[in-house]
Each structure stands twice: as structure tokens, then as C-alpha cells.
Design a protein that fits this description.
The structure holds three protein chains of three kinds. Chain A has eleven helices and no strands. Chain A is an all-alpha fold. The two termini of chain A are 22 Å apart. In chain B, a hairpin with a 2-residue loop joins strand 11 and strand 12. In chain B, helix 2 packs across helix 3. The longest helix of chain B has 18 residues. Chain B starts with 6 loop residues before the first strand and ends with a strand. By secondary structure, chain C is mainly α. The chains are: A mainly alpha, B alpha+beta, C mainly alpha. The interface between A and C is large, with 98 and 95 residues.
Chain lengths: 270, 349, 316
């Protein structure tokens, strides 16, 4: 229902949305400014983007390192998303079943844990694990483990939310029509939650791309990711190449978010 | 398979409790093959639970379930030769009508050619052949209901269970579907077990009505028997309207009530109890009748088109009378009612 | 029609009819089978979380009571030394440094949560008032910054706060800061950066409860001559309080553990719990002390959740 609204509401709304976009806009605008100095507009240029791909003498970002970091970031996101989507989807299906009463609360607590724990603690936990088990030394493998650990619950929650819209009667109808337990899952439930699984996977993917803290504590010099690279560069000082790189990542994120929104938008159902 | 005894379903001494409530108490029933049976009762009487126990969706605490002679008490739903039409139909929204209908046959890994023939035949029978490619959300309520029935019947079950299948339809459609279900059942000869709280529905479709209350079957019989000869206040009141007349004492075949003496055609087993009479069996006279007559004052008269509902006050009792529109029925008038001996029902409780 | 109907039921045992106790067993086996299948499905992820989250969490808790060796190695002694040190008692006597960091983290997280909620409310109302197809577009607009890398967003604030950019020049012209200095590093910059970072965490959980709002209550309140504030207090607030509670939980938790924003916008002196943990696990190589801070952080988070009350936990 649409309500008559006070004039200040849209004003405040748009102003706050503007505030959300202000830093992103600043980065994007600076990335096409033909000057290493901030605060002055020297005309439009693509040169900072070009420099990301070609090594020049005065480059502030090493394009070989950039390539390696991009490869690590995407590799990490793809592998961790793959694992967490499978585990998370199975978890969501498992959570739908009948559980013994005393198990329900602890299981839900474990599932919610990665959602409500500050990520610095997740990171510290990975460091502590390394202390007692050298298998989890810094590096790509440990990063994948760390990422899956915080992704899996988000995937499970997204899929579980969609599963809860499927009535128990449908499950019973399928049982009544001779479908086995797996038959119910494969033929009735799974086809109805595919978009939620894809959305959960895309969420996991963005979470992985976004992550700084856990990667910071688990990465080795060889497995550095784009956020780590950017942070390291920022600590050395700001530079237009970083503007350009950040803007590129930004647009990749926009594409992902629009994809997820498209898949999860409510549609007319039964 | 032991089909020789001609029994489709036999349920013996089923009890079920949920937490602290006893939903079913030692219920037993037997359905001969090819019958249209109805479990009738108010909500919460345990009828749906009983249906679900027969379907295998719920497991009884004690008791046994046999379907066509085989003990299926511990057999899960997907291995019982029983199919269900669910209350809200529970069609699979991601599958077309045809795929919904073929679902059960697919589960049983039937050859694709057989699936096609059987599905098409059932869909023709239910007049939903043209809807094959539609999705459930593109169907009307009546069409969904047909799909749900087709989806269950295509499996040629020993018993078809129907869980309030008409409650989601509007009144006009409901009548057509009742007729249709009855026709289908006769044509196929499959045993139907319908659960409903609607007494009209129960009376118009069934061969046998089983009235349930508080987890027990309180009376069973043909619709006529149940309606004409209820044995308890609950059944008399639940099926159609009934005037309940308390009896203070019995003297041979004569019962003493607050409004006067009534002659009965048999001696009740109790001394104080209840008599019942249907509103349409009470006769209206302008003079005192010779036999079993009460006099009373019309307190209300509601015109119903083909008849008038009178509320007649006799002593401390208000009787509902279904009178022809031609009778004198001014509010405040004194009239005489005759309660024929044959119409008076002696209840057990 | 029922020609050669295959017997579907073979599992039924004949003996069950006499003995109700065996039926009890049958009951148990079928529900137990379903439970076992559910457990199996969930077991992969649950095991993963147990091994890589619960177990390491316990190790962190254990580490908090250990001590640091001379070369940064962990000595598995048991003592409360790390907590005593966090409370201020060090080799050189008592100092409030660590307690100030804890207080600052709490204060900042509280301020940012309140500011984010205040900004989120009008946005959520604004979005809920739009026609349906616009709502999802606007929600996507809120989600995009939420999904954008925090390092990049913070970087945007570094640019905006730079001394070469208009905001700093304007502030200098007003005399708030010295000429030629930037707005960052400062507590102000950290607050803005953090509110900006957590704002979507406030809008997204608030929105559904506002969209479902029953406006007839508002009309009833207006009808009874309630003022704007009383209308909000009695007709709107009770309806959106679950959303408000989950929004405040979801903003408070990331802000209490935040360290990227303060690291980049706060400068070396502006330490929060997150930075302190990072320092102990990183440069200082004092893992037991870092673990002790983690334990304190977790306890504070739990107290926060507990304060939000029962409804808060349900809202999550």
C-alpha cells in the first residue's frame, strides 16, 4: 500500500542513499582524473586503468603482483563458494528434518555462530588452529577453510528460508505418491529451491570477495588477495592506480548484486 | 495378495496421543471393497489423524492397520497401496499438471509408455486433458481439485483417502464436485474414504457414514440410518437440526417431559434421558391433536422460501419446527404441535 | 481397473498385529530413519563448523590462559595474567591504556549503532512507501555498498577526508581544523566510516518489519487525537521493534570487532579492540594476550545479545 508521505521522507531517504554511495563515487571519479593529485580536475583519462595491465616505470602497482592477487581472489572465491554451497545446501535440507529435541538448540547455535561472531574472532580462531595443527599454516588452503567457515551458514540460511515456503503437505503428498526420502528431496524440494541455491552461492561469492580480515590473518605472501593488495598499497599512500583497481572491483560487485537481486526477487507463486 | 475377503481397509484398536491429548481412543473400522465411506465429525475429533494413520503419514501408538489383508501398520507411506487427496491439494508448483499426475507412476519406475497411457486416461476421465501443460498456479480451485484427484487415482490405489477435499471450494462448485466424486467412485469401484465436517457432504456422497467425536466412532451406518435413527445427542444434533426433549421420568411407554406426556413406541432403557425429533417431522395444527400434542406460542418465524422455520415455545422448551409456508404462522399466535410416535427418537444418553 | 496391482507393502510383519510393543518399535524406527537422514545431510557442514570454528574457539579460550615465551612462542602455562594485564596491571605498574581501548570500542560501537538506526529508519520507511517494483531496485541500491569491499569503501573516505579535497578545505576555512591538514586520521573520520559501513546492516533487517506494518493502527491512533510522537511510540514502535532489535544486533556486532576502518582512518594512536587483537596476533606475536582480548570481545558480544533480550534472540 502506498501512503501519503511527508516531503522530508524522500529527501532523507535519498540523502542517506547518497551518503552510502559517497565514498564509492569519490573513488570512481578520482580513477578517471588525469592527475596524481586529488582535489583538482585535470580532465578525463583511462590511463590509470591501462597502467593496471602494463608495467610502467612510475607505476605504483606492480601488474604482475596484481595479476597474481586477482587470480588468488577469484580462485579462492570460486573454490570456497563451491564447497560452502554444497555443504550449506545439505545443511539447510538437514535442518528441515525432524531433530531430537535436545539437539535442536545447540545445532541452531552452531549454525548461527559464524553469523554473529565478529570476523576478527573467526580470524583469531584460524590463527589458534594453526598453533596446534601445522597443517593449517598460512596459505591458500587455510584461506579456503576460513572462507568456507563463514560462508556456509549464510548459504544455509538463504536456502532454508526458501525451503520453509514449501508446505509440509507437499512433502507428504510426494511420500504418498511413492517417493522415497531422497526422491522427495531430488524431485520436489530441490527443483523449487534452485534459485535460492544460486542466490546463496552468489552471496557466498561476494562474501569471499569482500573479505579482508580472515584473509589478512591466513594469507601467505604467495596467496595475497586483491583486498590485501589494496590495503597494503593504501598504507604506502594513495594512488590513481588503486582508484582504478577499486573501481573495477566495484563494478564487478554491482553486477553480482544485481544478479542476486534478480534471482531472489519475489515472484507470484501458487 | 489376500483380496479374497473383500475388505479394503481394516483398522483395529488404534490409539494415538499428541503430547497430553488423546486424539484417537481404540478406534476400529472395516471398509468393504468398493464402498464410499465418510468419517464425519467436528474439527478436533481425530478424523484427520485417523486418515493420516491409514495413509502412513502418522504412526499409531497402538493398534493395527490392514490394507487389502496385509498388515501395513509399520509400512511407511511410500510403500502403501493407498493414495491421498490433500486438503489444500498440495500440488507440486514446479511441475505441470501432466507431470503432477505422472509423479506417482514415475516413482514406481513404470515404463514411460504405460505412464503416458494411464495418465492420459485418468486425465480424460476427470476432464483435465486440455490442462496438461499448465502449472498449478494457472488453475482455478475446481481444476486443482481435479488434478489432485487424478494424481492420486492414476496409481489405482486400493483405497483413495480424501482429506476435506471440498473445503477450499465455494458452495456452488462443491455440489458439482460431490456429484462428480460419487460418479467416479461408482465407475471405478475403488474404495473411497472421505473426511469431512460437512454433514450435507457426508449424507449426499457416502454409502457408509462414520460419525466421530472425541477420538471415537460414535455411530456408523448408511446416511439414512444415521440421520433417521441417531443414537446419541451428539449425532442427533450434529447431523441436521434436532429438538432435544429432556425426559424426567418414564412410565411404561409414556415419557413425562416438561411440556407434557409423550407416547413412545418402545420402552426406553433409562428412566431419565433425552428424546429427539427433527424439525420437519413435527406437524403443525390449529386445534389440539388427539395424540402426543403440545401447545405453544410462536416466538419467531423465519421465511426460508420453500418453508418457514418456527421457533415455538412450549413451557420451558423452545422447539424448532419446519412448517409449510401455507400454515398459520404469525408471531405471538398459539398453535398446536403434534410429535408423531414414529418420529420420536429415544437416545441412548 | 486394478489389474495385477503390485503389492507395494512387503515390509509389514505379520507378528505386529498381536503385540503393540512391536508397533512402538516400528514407530521409532521410521521416525529414527528420517532423523538419521536429516543428521547425515547436516553432518558435513556441522562437522566443518565444529572442527574449524568451535574447536579453534576452544583453543582461543585455552590460549587466553597460556603465556608468551621470549621468542613469541606459546607456553602452555595456566594463569589469569593476560586478563590482569588487560585490566591495566603491567610490569610498570597500573595504566588505563587497555581499559580506555575497551571503553572507546564500546562507546564507538554504541554511537555508530544508534546513528545507523537513526539514518536507517527514514530510508526503510521511504523504500516501503514506494510502488513494489521500485522497492526491489532501491533495496538493491542499499545492498550494493553492503557487498562492496570494505577496504575500498574506507579508501573512498580516505580520499574524501584528504587535505586536498573540498571537505577538509571547507572545515579549515571554518577554522575547525588547521590549514593543510586532512579530516583523517581522526575519531570523526572513523565514526563516519563506520556508520557508512554498517548502515546497510541496519536498513536490511528493518525493512521487512516496516513493509509489513499495519497502518490501520496508525490511523486508529490519529483518530484518537494522538500526537505524532505518541502515534510513533504506541502504533508504530511496537510493530517494528523486532526489526529494530535485530538491526541493532546486526550493526553492533560488526562495529565492536571492526578493525579495517579504524586501522585506515584512525591513525596509529586510535586503537580499538580489533586493532589490539590484530597487533597481538601480528606484529607483537603475543597470541595468548590476543586470545584473552578475543575472549573479552566475545563476552561483550554475548552481554550485548543478552541485553537485547529474549525477543532479540528470537528476531535473529
Amino acid at each position: 500500500m502506498i501512503r501519503r508521505q511527508h516531503w522530508s521522507l524522500p529527501l532523507l531517504g535519498w540523502a542517506t542513499l547518497g551518503f552510502l554511495y559517497l565514498p564509492l563515487l569519490a573513488v570512481a571519479v578520482c580513477s578517471v582524473n588525469d592527475s596524481r593529485l586529488l582535489g583538482e580536475w585535470h580532465g578525463f583519462t583511462w590511463q590509470w586503468y591501462e597502467r593496471l595491465f602494463v608495467d610502467l616505470k612510475d607505476n605504483r602497482v606492480d601488474s604482475t603482483a596484481l595479476f597474481a592477487a586477482t587470480r588468488n581472489t577469484i580462485g579462492l572465491a570460486v573454490i570456497s563458494t563451491f564447497i560452502s554451497t554444497i555443504l550449506g545446501t545439505m545443511l539447510a535440507f538437514g535442518l528441515r528434518g525432524r531433530w531430537p529435541k535436545p539437539l535442536t538448540a545447540p545445532v541452531m547455535a552452531v549454525v548461527m555462530l559464524p553469523v554473529i561472531t565478529p570476523d576478527i574472532i573467526l580470524a583469531a580462531a584460524m590463527v589458534a588452529l594453526r598453533q596446534v595443527w601445522s597443517l593449517f599454516d598460512t596459505g591458500f588452503f587455510t584461506m579456503v577453510i576460513g572462507h568456507v567457515t563463514f560462508q556456509v551458514s549464510f548459504v544455509a540460511l538463504v536456502v532454508h528460508a526458501r525451503l520453509s515456503h514449501i508446505s509440509a503437505a507437499q512433502e507428504e503428498a510426494a511420500r504418498d505418491l511413492y517417493a522415497s526420502h531422497w526422491g522427495v528431496i531430488m524431485r520436489v524440494m530441490l527443483p523449487q529451491v534452485t534459485t535460492a541455491i544460486v542466490a546463496g552461492a552468489m552471496l557466498a561469492f561476494t562474501l569471499s570477495l569482500d573479505d579482508f580480515v580472515i584473509s589478512f590473518f591466513t594469507a601467505s605472501p604467495q596467496s595475497t588477495t586483491l583486498p590485501l593488495l589494496i590495503q597494503a598499497s593504501i598504507r604506502r599512500g594513495i594512488s590513481p592506480e588503486i582508484h582504478a583497481l577499486s573501481t573495477l572491483i566495484l563494478f564487478a560487485t554491482v553486477a553480482l548484486v544485481l544478479g542476486v537481486t534478480h534471482l531472489t526477487r519475489p515472484r507470484p507463486t501458487e | 495378495m489376500t483380496k479374497s475377503d473383500g475388505t479394503s481397509v481394516s483398522v483395529h484398536a488404534i490409539s494415538k496421543r499428541f503430547a497430553t491429548t488423546e486424539v484417537l481412543r481404540q478406534v476400529s473400522l472395516t471398509l468393504p471393497r468398493g464402498i464410499f465411506a465418510t468419517l464425519l465429525g467436528p474439527s478436533g475429533c481425530g478424523k484427520t489423524t485417523l486418515l493420516r494413520i491409514i495413509a502412513g503419514l502418522e504412526i499409531a501408538d497402538t493398534g493395527t492397520v490392514h490394507v487389502s489383508g496385509q498388515d501395513v501398520t509399520t509400512v511407511p507411506a511410500h510403500r502403501r497401496p493407498v493414495n491421498t487427496v490433500f486438503q489444500q491439494y498440495a500440488l507440486f508448483p514446479h511441475l505441470s499438471v501432466w507431470e503432477n499426475v505422472a509423479f506417482g507412476l514415475r516413482s514406481r519406475r513404470m515404463p514411460e509408455a504405460d505412464i503416458t497411457t494411464r495418465s492420459n486416461r485418468v486425465m480424460e476421465m476427470l476432464h483435465i486433458g486440455e490442462l496438461a501443460e499448465r502449472r498449478p498456479d494457472q488453475l482455478s480451485g475446481g481444476q486443482r481439485q481435479r488434478v489432485a484427484v487424478a494424481r492420486a487415482l492414476v496409481n489405482e490405489p486400493e483405497v483413495l483417502l480424501l482429506d476435506e477435499p471440498l473445503s477450499a471450494l465455494d458452495a456452488k462448485l462443491r455440489y458439482d464436485v460431490q456429484v462428480e466424486l460419487r460418479r467416479l467412485q461408482r465407475q471405478l469401484g475403488t474404495t473411497f474414504l472421505l473426511v469431512t465436517h460437512d454433514q450435507d457432504e457426508a449424507l449426499s456422497v457416502s454409502d457408509v457414514v462414520m460419525v466421530m467425536n472425541h477420538g471415537r466412532i460414535v455411530q456408523q451406518g448408511s446416511p439414512r440410518e444415521i440421520y433417521d435413527y441417531p443414537t446419541s445427542r451428539f449425532v442427533a444434533d450434529f447431523l441436521g437440526a434436532a429438538n432435544l426433549i429432556p425426559v424426567n421420568s418414564v412410565n411404561g411407554n409414556q415419557a413425562n417431559t416438561v411440556c407434557g406426556h409423550l407416547h413412545l413406541d418402545k420402552t426406553p432403557t433409562w428412566n431419565t434421558g433425552t428424546l429427539a425429533i427433527r424439525p420437519e417431522r413435527i406437524l403443525v395444527h390449529s386445534q389440539a391433536p388427539s395424540h402426543n400434542g403440545f401447545s405453544g406460542i410462536i416466538r419467531d418465524a423465519i421465511f426460508r422460501g420453500d418453508h418457514v422455520d418456527l421457533h415455538v415455545e412450549c413451557a420451558h422448551l423452545t422447539l424448532r419446527v419446519r412448517a409449510p409456508t401455507t400454515s398459520v404462522c404469525g408471531v405471538g399466535n398459539r398453535i398446536y404441535l403434534e410429535l408423531p410416535t414414529t418420529a420420536l427418537l429415544v437416545l441412548d444418553d | 481397473m486394478i489389474d495385477g496391482h503390485a503389492p507395494l507393502s512387503r515390509a509389514g510383519k505379520k507378528s505386529t498385529s498381536e503385540n503393540p510393543i512391536i508397533i512402538q518399535a516400528g514407530h521409532l524406527t521410521t521416525t529414527r530413519a528420517a532423523t538419521v537422514k536429516s543428521l547425515l545431510l547436516a553432518s558435513g557442514a556441522l562437522l566443518w563448523l565444529l572442527v574449524f570454528l568451535v574447536l579453534p574457539g576452544l583453543i582461543v579460550a585455552a590460549l587466553a590462559f597460556a603465556s608468551r615465551g621470549d621468542y613469541g612462542q606459546v607456553l602452555w602455562t595456566f594463569g589469569w595474567d593476560n586478563f590482569v594485564r588487560l585490566a591495566g596491571w603491567g610490569i610498570f605498574g597500573w595504566s588505563a591504556d587497555y581499559l580506555i581501548i575497551i571503553a572507546r570500542s564500546l562507546l564507538l560501537a554504541g554511537t555508530c549503532t544508534i546513528l545507523a538506526l537513526l539514518l536507517a529508519l527514514p530510508v526503510a520507511f521511504f523504500i516501503a512507501n514506494q510502488p513494489i517494483r521500485w522497492r526491489y531496485l532501491l533495496l538493491a541500491l542499499v545492498t550494493i555498498p553492503f557487498c562492496t569491499n570494505l577496504v575500498i569503501r574506507t579508501y573512498g573516505w580516505i580520499l574524501l577526508c584528504s587535505n586536498q579535497m573540498p571537505p577538509a578545505k571547507f572545515a579549515a576555512w571554518l577554522g575547525w581544523i588547521d590549514d593543510g591538514t586532512g579530516l583523517a586520521p581522526s575519531a570523526f573520520a572513523v565514526t563516519i566510516g563506520m556508520v557508512n559501513a554498517i548502515l546497510p546492516f541496519a536498513v536490511l533487517p528493518l525493512y521487512p518489519s516496516i513493509e509489513r506494518l499495519d497502518w490501520s493502527l496508525v490511523e486508529a491512533a490519529r483518530d484518537n487525537y494522538a500526537s505524532r510522537w505518541r502515534t510513533f511510540r504506541h502504533a508504530i514502535l511496537p510493530q517494528i521493534s523486532p526489526g529494530l532489535i535485530s538491526a541493532s544486533i546486526l550493526t553492533f556486532i560488526p562495529s565492536i570487532g571492526m578493525f579495517v576502518v579504524s586501522d585506515l582512518l584512525g591513525g596509529a594512536k586510535y586503537m580499538l579492540l580489533g586493532n589490539l587483537i590484530q597487533q597481538q596476533f601480528g606484529a607483537s606475536r603475543d597470541w595468548p594476550f590476543g586470545a584473552a582480548i578475543c575472549v573479552v570481545l566475545i563476552i561483550m558480544t554475548l552481554i550485548g545479545l543478552w541485553l537485547m533480550g529474549r525477543r532479540g534472540r528470537e528476531a535473529l
